[in-house]
Amino acid sequence: MAAGAEGVPGLCGAAEGSETPGTPPSPAAERPRVRRQRGRFLVWSPGAARALRERHRVWGALVGTPPRRGPRGGAAAGPRLPLQLRPEEARALRESGGATVEPVDEAEAEPSGGGAGGGARAALATPLSRAERRSRVFRALWGRGLHLTRGGKFGGDFLVYPGPPAQFHACAVAQCPRSSRAQPLGALLAAARLCACVRKALLLCAAPPEGAPSCTAITWRADLT
C-alpha cells in the first residue's frame, strides 16, 4: 500500500461551475426548501431538486415510487421525487445558507444540549458520534468543490467524485472511522484491495474533537505484494 497525506487534492480535481459552499446564493436565485418529515429531509419541488444538484453539488437520492409502467406502456421509469437528503447534506446546506431547511414535526426538534458551555465541554471530552464525524468530513470534502454520494456499496461512508456523478467516475471511497479506535490491519488491507479492484483510492478521514478534519489517501500497489 502507498499512503499520501495530501489526500483528496492529489486524487480529484474540483469541478467548476457550482457555487462555493458558505456563499449565499445571488438575490435572483430563490433558496431551495427542504422539508423535514419524520426524521427524513425531503425535497418535493423539481426546481429545488435540480438547483441542489446543479448549483450546490448536493445529490441525495430519489425515493419516490415509480409508475408501474413507463410512457405508452413501456418499461417502468426510475425513481421519482421526493429527493431525500442525508442528514449531513441537509446540515451543510443549512449552515452554508444554500437552502432553507424547514422542520415539519415539532417533536423532532433537535435537543438543545443543556447550554452552550456544557455542550462545548462535553464535545471536547468525548469522541464524536458517527453522525457528527460524517457531517464534519462531508462538509470538509464538499467545501473543496467535490461531489459526494452514498458509499455503502463499496464499504465506505461516501463516494467522492471530481465532477457530477452522471459525468465522472468516483475517484475515491471515503471512510470515517473513529479516531480513538485503532483500525484493524486486516480490514484496512481488505478495503484498500477492494478499492483497487474498482479503480478507486481509499480515503481515510479523521474528524478529531479538536482540530479540523484531515484525510489520508491509500492506494494498493500490487508490485509490493
Features:
5 helices; 22% strand; 6-stranded mixed sheet; disordered N terminus; alpha+beta; globular; 11 strands; 5-stranded mixed sheet; 225 residues
Describe this structure in words.
- The strands form two sheets. The protein has a six-stranded mixed β-sheet.
- A hairpin with a 2-residue loop joins strand 2 (33-37) and strand 3 (40-43).
- Helix 2 (87-96) crosses helix 4.
- The longest helix is centred in the middle third of the chain and has 13 residues, at 130-142.
- With 225 residues, the chain is of the alpha+beta class.
- 24% of the residues lie in helices and 22% in strands.
- The radius of gyration is 19 Å and the shape is globular.
Brief write-up:
This protein is 24% helix and 22% strand. The chain has helices spanning 46-54, 87-96, 116-125, 130-142, 185-197; strands at residues 2-4, 33-37, 40-43, 61-64, 80-85, 100-103, 147-150, 158-161, 172-175, 201-206, 214-219.
- What letter string, H or E per element, gives the SSE order? EEEHEEHEHHEEEHEE
Distance between the termini: 9 Å
With helices defined by DSSP (H or I, 4 residues minimum), what is the helix count? 5
Helical fraction equals 10-25%
Number of strands: 11
Output the structural class: alpha+beta
Radius of gyration: 19 Å
Nearest-integer average pLDDT: 81
In which order are the strands of the major sheet placed?
1-11-10-9-8-7
Question: Based on CA inertia axes, which overall geometry fits?
Answer: globular
Strand content bin: 15-25%
Largest sheet: 6 strands, mixed
Give the uncertain stretches in residue-range form: 3-7, 106-117, 119-125
